[in-house]
Design a protein that fits this description.
With 467 residues, the protein is an alpha+beta fold. Helices cover 59% and strands 10% of the residues. Strands 1-2-3-4 form a four-stranded antiparallel β-sheet.
Length: 467
């Protein structure tokens, strides 16, 4: 009968994931074409930089924020296990040996009773069962809420992994970008130094004025003044990579002195909008929080109804060990217990209203996370596309400046221009190369921003056993 009663329907709403209009919409600047999810898993490996791959995968394994997030998953699972255990019968066993001696002075004449034994022992062995029968599904709803919160914790851990992967990639690519910019700046400084040397020769020959020389020298000073700032950025990025990968700041400091070739920044497929909404861990987290809050409505509503508990205890008790397990030694109690919060000043209704309000808020938070995700992704798409366009233009400018410098060299060797004009052409080339380096750094950061918006890079984490 208890099992039948416990199988009654649960009060409160059954949860169903809301269907949002955004799931059926299309991208503004991209075609809604399905893309295999493998594209978004470990996307950094396709870039062909072993150092980048090493750093990101080390951060996913060792980063302290990620490890804390994974421990929060374990905490949520432990709480869920506690809730599940509350719905099961509690069984305990006990045994005892009691030695008793009665006072003769407290009971005069007791010793004259035939068969009286003043001192004796009692052997007792038995157990008890306590069970609050889940008549209205309160425990089942609490388990639903616990399951959803554990899944929300997993999604939050996935979000932490995504954030760390993106931050590691952005830091590393910033370091490489600053190194490219510094190399271009060093070349510009070298070209300007040669221009200063030639200008001084021209000044000695009376071909230019002192003011003309000062202009050239001030430009060199301006270029050289920018070098320390870039060195700081390079060192700061290298120092930041240490903690990101779970180590000391100096762990990756050697990268500051190692210059690698730049990566190719290709077009990134974005897939379907609906797939994005299923992929992003922040959306998964808010959706699971909504599921948990919906289940809490049932937990609150179950307080309107009576609760039935069943307590059973019994066993064997005897004054002699030899007769402990005889039929005459048995004892038991069966106590069904009914309780009902008939009047509590409206507290139950208030708890129900609170749960319903929190569920409504969670629904709005879920919808907001979807809209924010779409906004972030559309912005990231536009930023990456325009950054690649700027990089292409910068590369073209560098090519044109290189051609201009080549022609200037030919003219110089033919005597058509002087060395000062040649150095000006070289300075223009170095400036264009620096502009290309800056454009590359900005485009590489825009790339990591797009992968972050698309929710790529956390998928290596397993959901784990939900039992």
């Amino acid at each position: 009968m208890a099992s039948t009663l416990a199988g009654c329907a649960s009060v409160g709403p059954d949860y169903a994931r809301p269907q949002l209009e955004a799931e059926n919409t299309e991208w503004i600047d991209r075609t809604n074409v399905p893309v295999a999810e493998e594209v978004f898993i470990a996307w950094w490996r396709d870039l062909g930089d072993p150092e980048l791959t090493r750093l990101i995968e080390a951060s996913l394994e060792n980063n302290l924020s990620v490890r804390q997030a994974l421990l929060r998953v374990e905490e949520a699972r432990a709480r869920r296990a506690q809730v599940r255990a509350a719905g099961l019968p509690s069984v305990s066993a006990d045994s005892s040996v009691t030695v008793l001696q009665q006072s003769l002075n407290a009971n005069p004449g007791l010793a004259d009773i035939p068969g009286f034994v003043r001192e004796f022992e009692v052997y007792d062995i038995g157990g008890s069962l306590a069970w609050q029968i889940d008549l209205w599904g309160q425990t089942r709803r609490a388990v639903e809420a616990g399951d959803a919160r554990a899944e929300a914790a997993i999604a939050a851990a996935n979000g932490a992994r995504l954030a760390v992967a993106i931050e590691t990639a952005s830091t590393y690519l910033s370091l490489r970008g600053f190194q490219e910019e510094r190399a271009a700046l060093a070349a510009s400084a070298a070209a300007q130094k040669e221009l200063v040397r030639l200008s001084r020769i021209q000044l000695d020959k009376g071909q230019i004025s002192r003011a003309d020389l000062l202009l050239v020298e001030s430009e060199l000073a301006r270029i050289e003044a920018e070098v320390p700032a870039l060195d700081v950025e390079i060192r700061a990025a290298a120092l930041a990579l240490g903690p990101l990968t779970g180590g000391l700041p100096e762990k990756e400091i050697a990268l500051a002195a190692q210059r690698e070739s730049v990566l190719s920044l290709a077009d990134i497929p974005v897939g379907l909008r609906a797939d994005l909404l299923r992929r992003r861990p922040d959306i998964a987290r808010t959706e699971r929080e909504l599921a948990a809050q919906t289940a809490e409505i049932g937990v609150a509503k179950a307080e309107l109804f009576p609760k039935l508990s069943l307590n059973i205890d019994g066993g064997f008790a005897s004054a002699m060990v030899d007769t402990l397990f005889d039929g005459n030694s048995t004892n038991y109690n069966i106590v069904p217990f009914l309780s009902w919060r008939i009047f509590d000043g409206g507290r139950v209704r208030a708890e129900i209203n609170l749960a319903e309000t929190e569920a409504k808020r969670a629904a709005l938070a879920y919808e907001e996370s979807v809209l924010n995700a779409l906004t972030e992704t559309e912005t990231a798409i536009a930023r990456y596309d325009l950054a690649r366009e700027a990089l292409t233009l910068s590369e073209r400018a560098a090519v044109l400046s290189s051609e201009n410098y080549r022609l200037a060299r030919l003219q110089f060797y033919k005597g058509a221009i002087d060395r000062l004009r040649l150095q000006e052409a070289e300075r223009g080339l170095r400036s264009a190369e620096r502009g290309k380096a800056i454009a590359y750094r900005q485009a590489s950061l825009a790339m990591t921003g797009l992968y972050a918006a698309l929710g790529g890079g956390w998928q290596a984490i397993p959901d784990g056993d939900k039992s």
